[in-house]
Amino acid sequence: MNQVFVHDQLIRFSHCDPAAIVYFPRFFDLAHGTMEDWFSQAVGFPLPELIGKRRVGTPTVSIRCDFIKPLRMGDTLRFELRVSKLGNASADLEYRGLKDGSEHLRIYQTVVFMDLDAARAVPIPDDVRSAIEPFLKTAADTSA
Q: Span 101-113, mean pLDDT?
């Protein structure tokens, strides 16, 4: 338990605003890329398989971000993704955004597992749940 998925992303010109810092909505796009790679590389269920073959989506129902320090073009953003809560049909994801070990942002996101054909929430499939569980934060992990 308590695995962390680490995902490094280069901050590019296209991520930045005229003030030469990352334009805040771009962090949500970068976090989504991290989530996609987590599902594919760590959980073992790429979103194209879940969405296309199994017809299970993971729409975001809640998201917020705490901005601590700016990031600039050329920086490497290291996202650390953990699951802070695993419900029947939902997962609360927590992303720590770091640069050189210093925290720059934190994103809190809730996704719901959804039957795309019926357009309703469904329990997390057992095989997907068991692959997600190792990323669930434990009570002992209060520092991150």
A: 98
- Looking at the DSSP assignment, which residues form a beta bridge with residue 118? none
Q: Is the pLDDT of residue 1 over 80?
A: no
The span from the CA of 93 to the CA of 144, in Å, is: 12
Q: What is the pLDDT of residue 5?
A: 97
Closest C-alpha to 112, from 74, 63, 75, 64: 63
Q: Note the pLDDT of residue 116.
A: 97
Q: What is the 3-state secondary structure (H, E, C) of 29-78?
A: HHHHHHHHHHHHHHHCCCHHHHHHHCCEECCEEEEEEEECCCCCCCCEEE
Which residue ranges form the domains of the chain, and what is each CATH number? 5-135 (3.10.129.10)
